Amino acid sequence: xxxxxxxxxxxxxxxxxxxxxxxxxxxxxxxNNVELIDSxxxxxxxxxxxxGVACKGLTHREASVLLACDIPEKVEEMYRIAExxxxxxxxNRIVMFAPLYLSNYCVNGCLYCPYHxxxxxxxxxxxxxxxxxxxxxALQDMGHKRLAIEAGEDPVNxxxxxxxxxxxxxxxxxxxxxxxxxxxxxxxATTVENYRRLKDAGIGTYILFQETYHKKSYLELHPTxxxxxxxxxxxxxxxxMEGGIDDVGLGVLFGLEMYKYEFAGLIMHAEHLEAVxxxxxxxxxxxxxxxxxxxxxxxFDNSIPDEMFEKIIACIRLAVPYTGMIISxxxxxxxxxxxxxxxxxxxxxxxxxxxxxxxxxxxxHDSEQFDVSDQRTLDEVVRWLMELGHIPSxxxxxxxxxxxxxxxxxxCKSGQILNCCHPNALMTLTEYLVDYxxxxxxxxxxxxxxxxxxxxxxxxxxxxxxxxIEDIKNxxxxxxxx
Length: 482
Ligand code: SAM
Fold this sequence. Notes:
Layout: H1 11-14, H2 17-30, H3 34-44, E1 47-48, E2 53-54, H4 60-68, H5 72-90, E3 93-103, H6 129-142, E4 146-151, H7 160-172, E5 182-186, H8 192-200, E6 206-207, H9 215-221, H10 230-234, H11 236-242, E7 248-251, H12 259-277, E8 283-285, H13 306-319, E9 324-327, H14 333-341, E10 346-348, H15 378-387, E11 391-393, H16 397-400, H17 405-413, H18 417-436, H19 439-453, H20 459-474
Parallel strand pairs: 3-4, 3-10, 3-11, 4-5, 6-7, 7-8, 8-9, 9-10
Antiparallel strand pairs: 1-2
Helix pairs in contact: 2-4, 2-12, 3-5, 4-12, 4-13, 5-13, 6-7, 15-19, 18-19, 18-20
């Protein structure tokens, strides 16, 4: 039997079934142990250091106890600390992005995904380079600067060369004041060599959802195709890091398996990356299974209600305080609004989950990957965020200044974000407002920027940011960053 070892490179040892089961048992036994819960909450709390503020994070066992606990005051306290952590490390900034679907050809048989090869009535599409260009222009015209590219797994239709060509095309398009400055990639698990090629193409984060950490369910949910190989899939992030990609994004597809099992697996995966590579995941996404062509989410018995979903987000925030958290348009405005308070730092806006969807007037359903709940325009999402007191940020500076992996983490840990990310967020928001926003969004935005500038602690940086903001308003100069 495999023995739990977070430093091992073998899936069954770092995501160890016995250890997860023991964790769930421990959590169940201690869910009303107030003394223990208080000590875990105390450990999770941010504390002051000489250079700023820091957090210890939680182990998968500690975090699982909190997730199991349903004493109302304690849950309230978890939410308060989650919000404190979010504000301490990410401030009130919310990074904006959009997915770009390149191809829905797929050879896998995933039971929850409409791209599965047996689905004969979904329209199969693969963008040509010219179509990629049209899609990117449409995204730039909305104001997006950061994309996550998505594709099914198909070595013939979507080989790595196709993905690399698309990345080159995306980075090459300069339309009006637009530019895509960071391309994140969500494609199937691949080889070290291919990860190296993606790194050389200048990608930001490599994102791969585990779907489920429960091996038996994983094998049943992925009955055929290369994705059936649980170990190869689970060990992908280690290969990505070996290939030089130091920002990786984890996630599970909530609803497929029992959320407590998934939660423990997810935190163990983060611990494993930290133990082996010295840097945890750059982001964690929290997708839930949605209705899609040929897919009825009700056939999976593990759907989670909104309240539990919010608690999971808060507990992830407490466990891995420095990791960015992403919520997509799978979720409604209401759920997204609550989740933002509890630790989410990145959201998508105006997403189309169909191949070629951004160049079609009407939201096309024939090649969509899943139903989108939040169907607002980017302008509406940006205005909504500002009305809730958040700063929508279009910043991509860290990645372009080489602040990735542990360099980003040390910036975050030293509390330097107010000197760095805050001015960058305000400058990129100014670019957005000047170039793309409606009059009402502009009005709300410029008032917010005036107030937020005052929060920048060092006079010299505030002065530079404020001068750049005036320059952006008065000229065509773009792309300022610290
Ligand atoms: N093909 C790549 C892979 O195998 O990892 C990933 C790309 S896929 C476009 C992105 C993610 O969408 C999947 O990892 C899965 O978690 C999610 N997804 C698939 N079907 C879904 C559904 N019905 N509802 C919500 N999300 C879904």
